[in-house]
Write a structure and sequence with these properties.
InterPro entries: TR_Rrf2-type_CS, Tscrpt_reg_Rrf2, WH-like_DNA-bd_sf, WH_DNA-bd_sf. Keywords: DNA-binding. This protein has 137 residues and is mostly helical. Helices cover 58% and strands 6% of the residues.
């Protein structure tokens, strides 16, 4: 069974970094790459896809960078993964029995439910985790 690729994982990590800085201006690609531990050349390709899909905006020039195109609470994890991975669980073989098409439809809906959380949800969970770890130090 196929999982989420490196592209999807890196894309989600980059979007998380942008969500952490939402409302504070743009981030340069080298900063995103460093914070998310993503090779910069690969990140350029990922960010180009996310920009094309309308999830981020780019600012050109020497002081340019990237920022979210919408608020973190308006971007679902599922939306990011579909932008980078294509339609999840979408077999295209028309020879499949109708029941199998229904099965894959159900799987796709289940995935939407699993990945329904937004970037803001991830930021909130990350903040809560950081607060918990401070108490264990």
């Amino acid at each position: 069974m196929a999982g989420i690729s490196t592209k999807g994982s890196y894309g989600l990590a980059a979007m998380y970094e942008l969500a952490l800085h939402y409302g504070q201006g743009h981030l340069q690609i080298r900063d995103i790459a460093e914070k998310a531990n993503i090779p910069q050349n690969y990140l350029e390709q990922i960010l180009a896809t996310l920009r094309k899909e309308g999830l981020i905006q780019s600012i050109r020039g020497a002081g340019g960078g990237y920022l979210l195109a919408k608020a973190p609470n308006a971007i679902a994890v599922f939306e990011i993964l579909v932008a980078l991975e294509g339609e999840l669980c979408n077999p295209t073989d028309e020879r499949l029995q109708p029941i199998l098409h229904l099965y894959w439809d159900r799987i796709r809906e289940d995935m939407k439910n699993v990945f329904h959380e937004t970037l803001q949800d991830l930021v909130d969970q990350g903040n809560a985790l950081n607060q918990q770890s401070m108490y264990f130090i």
